[in-house]
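Hi L.,

You mentioned the student needs an example of a multi-chain input paired with its predicted structure. This one should do, with 226 residues in total across all chains.
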Amino acid sequence: EVQLVESGGGLVQPGGSLRLSCAASGFTFGTYDMHWVRQATGKGLEWVSAIGSAGDTYYAGSVKGRFTISRENAKNSLYLQMNSLRAEDTAVYYCVRVWGNAFDIWGQGTMVTVSS
Amino acid sequence: QSGLTQPPSVSAAPGQKVTISCSGSSSNTGSNYVSWYQQLPGTAPKLLIYDNNKRPSGIPDRFSGSKSGTSATLGITGLQTGDEADYYCGTWDSSLSAVVFGGGTKLTVL
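Structure written out for the whole complex:
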């Protein structure tokens, strides 16, 4: 079964750091582009970051310079290192697989809460 | 970052048809494929339509997509109460080098 499972979310103080992980299974992880998408409670989807199969990276303007996306193909894992966290980063973070020009597989999400 | 424009809500009776619009610009919807996602309450989004008008395996043909110029449309026929959800459009923005989503449309089946 094709599956993405996020972990690493939790409560962190403003200015703090958190590292999210996404474990992929059921497909050849290294051949797919992967993204992170977040959703604040009661709000819409917001794209965060992407990493290509070749390692090229992209970031939303709101997180550029603070977040770093990476992957470890040998471990079928995707990561999101989040630094200098702000209250507005509070959201459910989804790990997403790209298939063609769309997001075909979504994880269940991991909740990040930035609060003092 | 600029997002795509969707109506906040639409509603229709069971069995009826509804359309949801998604408006963008030449750098996103006008030049890239649009996809649509359904998010049922408390769950992760699910791919409904890709490449403007194609349905993944398992998606019923009650769901359809189209695109003209810088606008895309999701159509749902034979509405069921189980279709009540939030629907999002998304695409790549070539100017921003970023993915952009619409704000989401809440579908109510009366």
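You could point out the following to them. The CA atoms of residues 17 and 85 of chain A lie 6 Å apart. The two ends of chain A are 39 Å apart (CA to CA).

Best wishes,
N.
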